[in-house]
Automatic annotation (TrEMBL):
InterPro entries: C1q_dom, Tumour_necrosis_fac-like_dom
UniProt KW keywords: Coiled coil
Superkingdom as given in the UniProt entry: Eukaryota
Residue ranges the record marks as coiled coil: 99-126
Organism of origin: Mytilus coruscus (Sea mussel)
Protein name: COL8A
Stored Pfam families: C1q (PF00386)
Origin organism lineage: Eukaryota, Metazoa, Spiralia, Lophotrochozoa, Mollusca
Domain C1q: 128-262
SUPFAM superfamilies the UniProt entry points to: TNF-like (SSF49842)
Amino acid sequence: MWINYSCKCQDLETFVAPIVDNKGAPLVAIVNTTNISSHIVRSIEMPLREIINSTIECRINEKLKEDIVSSKVLGNVNNKFDALQQKMDEYIGDNGNQLTEVNREIATLRKDMEKLKNLAKTVNDMNSRVALSACAVGHTIRPRSTIKFSSIKTIEGITNRHLTTFKSSGVFVCEVPGLYHISVVLMSTTNNVHFKIFKNNIELMNGYINNYYTEHGNYHQSNAAIVVTELQKGDNIDIKPNNKNMNVFGFNYSCLTIVKMK
């Protein structure tokens, strides 16, 4: 018997297939395909699971390898950083004394620079010219009071502020240190009077007007006091009568001169 069949699979669980024998007589066979589907699924499922498991295992192995490589790389980097830090520490340790010495030398150089600046200022002060010539206006001055020389004749190297102070008070204040020549000439009708040059209220030099010309019919007499002294910045010079009231004659007869020599 020959069995020939064709099938249009609209129902996966049951279908009807026409069967004919060798004589052409039609036969009908009913076939249950339920278990066939299950076998097909199982036959596909097992290889698929193996493929999935194998793939997952490969992925896990690759990930582990990547992690291992990454750990090695990080370890190498950390080792290199540690080695670099050690070298830096060794360098700082070896050169610490040198750095300290360099800092000391820099500090010394700064001090030397300050000394040079001060020296330059000193040299500049030494080369600065200072001169003052001024005369008194006629007046009478009491003992131990400063004579004022308000008529300025010559001025060099003195600031306006100090000049104003000098004209109002009669006190010369040194602005530029150095060696100074100081001279004062006074004319007076007062007999037997002493006058003095003071530096910081300390007597430097005396002058004296006697009664010689008065006894011979001349009422005006002149005398002088001259001194050379070292002045520092802020030192002051003034002229004072010592023992009595003194008449100071004006008209450029009573004058003070102060000159910086060096």
